[in-house]
Design goal:
By secondary structure, this protein is of the alpha+beta class. It folds into two domains: 33 residues; 116 residues, no CATH class. Helix content is 19%, strand content 51%. The strands form three sheets. The protein has a six-stranded antiparallel beta sheet with strand order 4-5-6-3-10-9. Strands 1-2 form a two-stranded antiparallel sheet. A two-stranded antiparallel ribbon has the order 7-8. Strand 9 and strand 10 form a beta hairpin. It is elongated.
Length: 162
C-alpha cells in the first residue's frame, strides 16, 4: 500500500487537502474551547498585596505631599493601589568624625518617608506586579507615583493575602 495513491488520498482513505482543512478546523475549535474555558474560570484570582517601602532623604515639601488615601499611577493611568500609611521621620545619614570613625546622625532638613501601600493584583508565575512594577523585598528602584508626586525608594516588606 502506497502512502499517497493516484487520486491524492492518504493511505487510500482521505484526500490530503481535506485532511489539512479538517486539521485546521479542529485546531480552531480547540482554541475557541480553550479560550471559553479560561474566560469561565476568570484567569488568575486577584490577591491583596501590601507593600512597605522606604524613601530616603526627601525634601520636606515632597514628604508632606504624600497622604493616606492617595491613589497611585502607572504610566498615565490610575491603578487600584492606594497609600494606607505614611510615616515621616528626620533623615538619617552618616558622617565621618575627625578621628576617622563614622557617626549616624539626623539631617535637620531632609526627611525619610516610610509608606505602606495596598492593592489587588493577579499573581502569575513567580512575579508580583503591582502599580506596573515588579515587587521584591530589597528592590531599590521602586517608584511611588501619584498625580502630584514621584518618589524613588526601597521595598522593605511584602505581604500577600488570599
Amino acid at each position: 500500500m502506497r502512502l499517497i495513491d493516484e487520486k491524492g488520498r492518504l493511505f487510500g482513505f482521505i484526500n490530503i487537502i481535506d485532511l489539512a482543512v479538517l486539521s485546521i478546523l479542529l485546531l480552531l475549535a480547540g482554541g475557541f474551547i480553550y479560550k471559553a474555558e479560561m474566560k469561565k474560570r476568570g484567569g488568575p484570582q486577584a490577591k491583596e498585596v501590601i507593600v512597605r517601602a522606604y524613601f530616603p532623604y526627601v525634601h520636606p515639601d515632597v514628604a508632606n505631599a504624600v497622604h493616606v488615601g492617595d491613589q497611585l499611577v502607572a504610566g498615565t493611568d490610575y491603578v487600584n493601589v492606594w497609600v494606607e500609611k505614611v510615616e515621616v521621620k528626620p533623615a538619617l545619614y552618616t558622617t565621618t568624625k575627625q578621628d576617622g570613625t563614622r557617626l549616624l546622625t539626623t539631617d535637620p532638613f531632609r526627611k525619610d518617608v516610610f509608606v505602606e501601600i495596598r492593592g489587588k493584583t493577579p499573581i502569575t508565575g513567580a512575579e508580583v506586579v503591582l502599580a506596573g512594577q515588579k515587587i521584591r523585598i530589597g528592590r531599590d528602584d521602586f517608584y511611588l507615583k501619584s498625580l502630584k508626586y514621584e518618589l524613588r525608594g526601597t521595598i522593605l516588606d511584602l505581604e500577600i493575602n488570599g
